[in-house]
């Protein structure tokens, strides 16, 4: 994936600038088409998340730029580590879509396929992230300075501060993206393909179905009020050919598995075949302590939970500068996402958007002293609050969240906007807890 911006240098920057000059400012159709040429693709097929976000091209551009930077651009972590961390994060919410996507990308960047057999065979350094991964995913208020210290002082397996910051950003990015995937129902169609009648993974990967189809579908180039979820298999695909391909893959599967046991590395010519077999790794393989999940944030005396007050540690005054200093430029990219999602043209009033944002932070233990929380109950109907909390705190349990009745008259783009607000508010909340713990470690 290549994202061309004025702030970054890319081999095709000049060419992209020429294309961008041809796009009229008010031509949303043209802008969406251009964004899809830059969207993350797998074998040429536009991914489902980008299709959902296409109704908000301004935000989509910011999202793709950030995602590309943390997963593919310069940074302290090697590429296989980045995608494996993304797998660990998505697995906490049993998000098949993201686990399969990053499993395939993990292999393409040279990751060891044996690691996909489960967390127990991953390098010890990656396994050390397991605790902070589950805490950030489910109960981020438990993130403590001691967690940071244990990672930075683990002998031969210790992490550097720069590595840990990038890892935390990837974890928070993928956790929050899980909320969007489930909230927009992106995972449901994909999950059905990952199951076969006998309970074993199929031997083909839906990312291969497009077979190099890089054209943007007409329905995506011009978003309508009846945008439907992308099916993992192209509707124009010849079913006869597909069945023949599946049958052929099944015959070759045993040979591939035998070869996999004999060697720990794969030749580049065999990489794509192995991707088809392994990209359907069961998310549960990467989870320990599966019963650890979201619990109501309370201030019960026996738990000693303290409310995170933004006046004491905020993104603008503290988190932004710290993360930008330890992981160059990521602060600017993240800040652009936060600003973009809250300033998108929308039928939702600024007060409503702020109520959604602050409510999400509230259920995660973050409070604003200068905000009247009575507005939350005034502006958010009960069914909308239940939906927001479900998608934010336990998206994997909801699977297909019940949309509020009040959404019946909303445009699809307005519904997506709410899911984007949920994702970004959750992302910022996790980052605040992690960065505060890192700050406490640095000044201790």
UniProtKB/TrEMBL annotation:
The keyword Cytoplasm applies. It catalyses: a hydroperoxide + L-cysteinyl-[protein] = S-hydroxy-L-cysteinyl-[protein] + an alcohol. Keywords: Cytoplasm, Oxidoreductase. GO terms for biological process: cellular response to L-leucine; cellular response to leucine starvation; negative regulation of TORC1 signaling; positive regulation of macroautophagy; regulation of response to reactive oxygen species. GO terms for cellular component: cytoplasm; nucleus. InterPro entries: AhpD-like (IPR029032), Sestrin (IPR006730). It holds the Pfam family PA26. The keyword Cytoplasm applies. Gene3D superfamilies: AhpD-like (1.20.1290.10). SUPFAM superfamilies: AhpD-like. One of its GO terms (molecular function) is oxidoreductase activity, acting on peroxide as acceptor. It is found in: Cytoplasm. Belongs to the sestrin family. This is Sestrin-3. It comes from Scomber scombrus. The lineage of its organism: Eukaryota, Metazoa, Chordata, Craniata, Vertebrata.
């Amino acid at each position: 994936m290549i994202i061309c911006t004025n702030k970054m240098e890319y081999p095709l920057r000049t060419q992209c600038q020429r294309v961008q000059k041809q796009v009229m400012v008010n031509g949303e159709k043209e802008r969406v088409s251009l964004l899809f040429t830059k969207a993350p693709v797998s074998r040429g097929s536009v991914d489902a998340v980008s299709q959902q976000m296409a109704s908000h091209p301004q935000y989509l551009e910011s999202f793709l730029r950030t995602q590309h930077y943390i997963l593919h651009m310069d940074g302290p972590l090697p590429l296989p580590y980045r995608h494996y961390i993304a797998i660990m994060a998505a697995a906490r919410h049993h998000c098949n879509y993201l686990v399969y996507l990053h499993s395939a990308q993990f292999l393409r960047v040279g990751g060891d396929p044996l690691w996909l057999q489960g967390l127990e065979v991953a390098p010890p350094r990656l396994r050390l992230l397991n605790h902070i991964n589950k805490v950030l995913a489910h109960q981020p208020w438990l993130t403590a300075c001691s967690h940071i210290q244990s990672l930075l002082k683990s002998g031969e397996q210790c992490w550097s501060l720069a590595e840990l910051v990038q890892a935390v950003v990837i974890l928070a990015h993928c956790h929050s993206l899980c909320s969007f995937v489930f909230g927009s129902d992106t995972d449901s169609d994909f999950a059905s393909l990952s199951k076969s009648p006998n309970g074993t993974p199929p031997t083909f990967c839906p990312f291969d179905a497009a077979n190099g189809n890089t054209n943007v579908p007409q329905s995506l180039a011009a978003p309508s009020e009846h945008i439907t979820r992308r099916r993992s298999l192209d509707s124009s695909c010849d079913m006869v050919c597909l069945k023949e391909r599946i049958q052929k893959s099944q015959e070759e599967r045993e040979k591939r598995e035998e070869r996999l046991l004999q060697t720990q590395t794969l030749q580049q010519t065999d990489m794509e075949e192995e991707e088809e077999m392994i990209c359907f790794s069961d998310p549960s393989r990467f989870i320990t302590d599966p019963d650890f999940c979201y619990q109501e944030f309370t201030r019960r005396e026996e738990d000693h939970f303290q409310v995170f007050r933004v006046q004491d540690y905020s993104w603008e005054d503290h988190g932004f500068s710290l993360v930008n200093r330890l992981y160059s430029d990521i602060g600017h990219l993240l800040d652009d996402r936060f600003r973009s999602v809250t300033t998108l043209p929308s039928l939702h009033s600024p007060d409503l958007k702020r109520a959604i944002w602050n409510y999400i932070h509230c259920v995660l233990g973050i409070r604003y002293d200068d905000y009247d929380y009575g507005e939350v109950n005034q502006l958010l109907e009960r069914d909308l609050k239940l939906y927001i909390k479900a998608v934010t705190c336990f998206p994997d349990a909801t699977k297909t969240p019940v949309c509020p009745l009040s959404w019946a008259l909303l445009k699809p783009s307005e519904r997506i906007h709410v899911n984007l607000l949920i994702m970004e508010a959750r992302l910022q909340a996790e980052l605040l807890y992690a960065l505060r713990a890192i700050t406490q470690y640095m000044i201790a």
